[in-house]
Design goal:
alpha/beta; eight-stranded mixed sheet; 19 helices; 30 strands; globular; binds ligand 6R9; Acetate--CoA ligase; EC 6.2.1.1; AMP-bd_C; nucleotide-binding; AMP-binding_CS
């Protein structure tokens, strides 16, 4: 949100000679210009890094704007690139995944083993009647089987919809309903801070509300006793031992534009949007950005410490590193468990070279001081990445100096669920300004505009837009083309700009400074939540008649949720009710959406058309000027 303090820093950090010598892309300006002037040619060249069953007729089909298509006429499957082609060379015996549980258990899988696991899972899904194009919902902790399940869906042309394991049954049920899923894949549960987390009972609650579900496959992970319903529920390990789950499964030859996944994200209304991504363009875009921005080399160990349930996990934990044949490090657990050195201990233990996390995680660990990372040899690190929200210069510098020993570039990547992959970020060779995500990635022309779509002068705040299509872009909102077109496109007449929903500035050097969301979307600990979802959760409690949610700056979380509630007639708010409401929201939406507080109020500031003016609530809470109140009711 707009209150995030990004002070313009005059400091510039230049890459070392070693970083420059190692760079996968040695030069930016010329290639950038070339990529924008010859966009289709540029993307065709990048697409040549991948394996196609049949090449495209057309790189970009823009005949039905804003429903752009990429690499039309081609046959492709992302799994053919993420696994199959690696089986033909030495990558076959290289580790694809090293997974560590919170308790310290380690499981690792070579590309050969990954292929076996994914093939078995794919055959299991087939035996359950899963068909090409069908949406399979996945609700799991961060275990290797989650990755297998995603890849298994993709392998047979089914569409996965991963619902973050921290979401509640209501949120899960709403997503199952929107996707009309027939099959749900879940696990008995996971672990967090040494305590088992029960997922299956949440899945059971969700399934009570989800008449479309016919089959639920449960992976055994934490050993909790769970309730299984006969004819509907199957243990994965039982199915896996059946002859149908053979370890040979042909990868389905798909069309480039066949759907790969839906990922639900928060927007301005209470109904989450299922952003739809497709096989080929997404594969080309994510693998190109991953290779260029992080200087990934075949021998590298890559750790994206995000949950696969979010877009960062989809694009940079699962798909792009596998396409690029890297070794992925995965961790299921809290970053400071049992001690705040957990991540750094793992960096040392596995010799991680490239590390990608969020500002909120950095700020959270920074609180514990330098002595925790300093206990470890972090010299394997070459590049550090940041994603999810603006990184404040203080956290940037700590990350740079303490974790990266002042030698690793910080790749601050701006992007969204909708964009599929990173849109604005430095290359390792780019001079850095702490707090700026620097320059657009190849092929992207970004601008900061006013309400008419005219570019604002350097240094002034405006709306961030992208002026061109790119291969990784979402194709639509699942089942709602109209909403997609009106929400993201078509505000500026002839100018076909993609509206990001963020406000930003561009400085005199062309560096982009993202300020935050302009709409009613909050980034809380890097998680994207809608104020409308939080409000409707509050209102679903019988005591509440109206509610408002706002974000206020928080030292670690970036933003924290604060709420206001008007109670039903005759009710009086007290501490106990406040606690009950906070827990109610957590139950409805998930722990991450639990508000810091609930203030009981008599009225809420509204426009004459009845919209809650959250801007006014925010200004009051911060003791700031309330700004233009001309549209305020009464
Ligand atoms: C990848 C992801 C998207 C929103 C986006 C913006 C914020 C993400 C950022 C950033 C400043 C960065 N955001 N990265 N803001 N600097 N490097 O986070 O996707 O969950 O869809 O959120 O996150 O506000 O609009 P998603």
């Amino acid at each position: 949100m707009a209150d995030n303090s990004i002070e313009k820093s005059s400091e510039i950090y230049h890459p070392s000679a070693e970083v420059v010598a190692n760079a996968n892309v040695p030069e930016y300006e010329q290639l950038y210009q070339y990529s924008c002037e010859n966009r289709e040619q540029f993307w065709a060249e990048q697409a040549d890094h991948l394996r196609w069953y049949k090449k495209w007729d057309k790189v970009l089909d823009d005949s039905n704007k804003p429903f752009y298509k990429w690499f039309t006429g081609a046959n492709f499957n992302i799994v053919h690139n993420a696994i199959d082609r690696h089986l033909e060379d030495a990558t076959r015996n290289k580790l694809a995944i090293i997974w560590e549980s919170e308790a310290g258990a380690v499981r690792s899988f070579s590309y050969h083993a990954l292929n076996r696991e994914v093939s078995k899972f794919a055959n299991t899904l087939k035996s359950m009647g899963v068909k090409k194009g069908e949406v399979v919902t996945i609700y799991m902790p961060q275990v290797p089987e989650l990755v297998f399940a995603m890849l298994a869906c993709a392998k047979i042309g089914a569409v996965h919809s991963v619902v973050y394991g921290g979401f509640s049954y209501e949120a899960l049920a709403a997503r199952i309903e929107d996707a009309h899923s027939r099959v749900l894949i879940t696990a008995d549960g996971g672990f967090r801070r040494g305590k088992p987390i029960d997922l299956k009972s949440i899945a059971n609650e969700a399934m009570k509300r989800s008449p479309t579900i016919e089959v639920c496959i449960t992976v055994r992970n934490n050993g909790l006793d769970v309730e299984m319903e006969s004819e509907r529920d199957f243990w994965y390990h039982d199915l896996q031992s059946l002859p149908v789950a053979s370890n040979k499964c042909e990868t389905e030859v798909l069309d480039s534009e066949d759907p790969l996944f839906i990922l639900y994200t928060s927007g301005t209304t209470g109904k989450p949007k299922g952003m739809l991504h497709t096989h080929a363009g997404y594969a080309v875009y994510t693998s190109t950005t991953h290779r260029c921005l992080f200087d990934v080399k075949p021998e590298d160990r890559w750790w994206c410490a995000a949950d696969p349930g979010w877009i960062t996990g989809h694009s940079y934990l699962v798909y792009s590193p596998l396409i690029n044949g890297a070794t992925i490090v995965m961790y299921e657990g809290a970053p400071n468990y049992p001690y705040p050195n957990r991540l750094w201990q793992m960096v040392e233990k596995y010799g991680v070279n490239l590390f990608y996390t969020s500002p909120t995680a950095i700020r959270g660990l920074m609180r514990f001081g330098e002595r925790w990372p300093q206990r470890h040899d972090l010299s394997s690190l070459r590049i550090l990445g940041s994603v999810g929200e603006p990184i404040n210069p203080e956290a940037w510098k700590w990350y740079y100096e303490v974790i990266g020993d002042s030698k690793c570039p910080i790749i601050d990547t701006w992007w969204q669920t909708e964009t599929g992959g990173v849109m604005i970020a430095p290359l390792p060779i780019t001079p850095l300004k702490p707090g700026s995500c620097t320059k657009p990635f190849f092929g992207n022309e970004v601008a900061v505009v006013d309400d008419e779509g005219n570019e604002v002068p350097a240094g002034e705040e405006g709306k961030l837009v992208i002026k061109n299509p790119w291969p990784g872009m979402a194709r639509t909102i699942y089942g709602d083309d109209e909403r997609y077109a009106s929400l993201y496109w078509g505000d500026y007449g002839d100018k076909e700009y993609y509206k990001a929903g963020d406000s930003a500035k561009v400085d005199e050097d062309g560096y982009v400074w993202v300020i935050g969301r302009m709409d009613e979307v909050l980034k809380v600990s890097g998680y994207r939540l809608g104020t409308a979802e939080i409000e409707s959760a509050l209102v679903s409690h019988q005591a509440v008649s109206e509610a408002a949610a706002i974000g206020l700056p928080h030292e670690v979380k970036g933003n924290a949720i604060h709420t206001y509630a008007i109670l039903r007639d005759g009710l009086v708010g007290d501490k106990a009710l406040e606690q009950e409401l906070k827990e109610h929201v957590a139950k409805e939406l998930g722990k991450i959406a639990q508000p810091e507080d609930v203030q009981f109020v008599e009225s809420l500031p509204k426009t004459r058309s009845g919209k809650i003016m959250r801007r006014v609530l925010r200004a009051r809470a911060l003791g700031q000027d309330e700004g233009d109140l001309s549209t305020l009711e009464e």
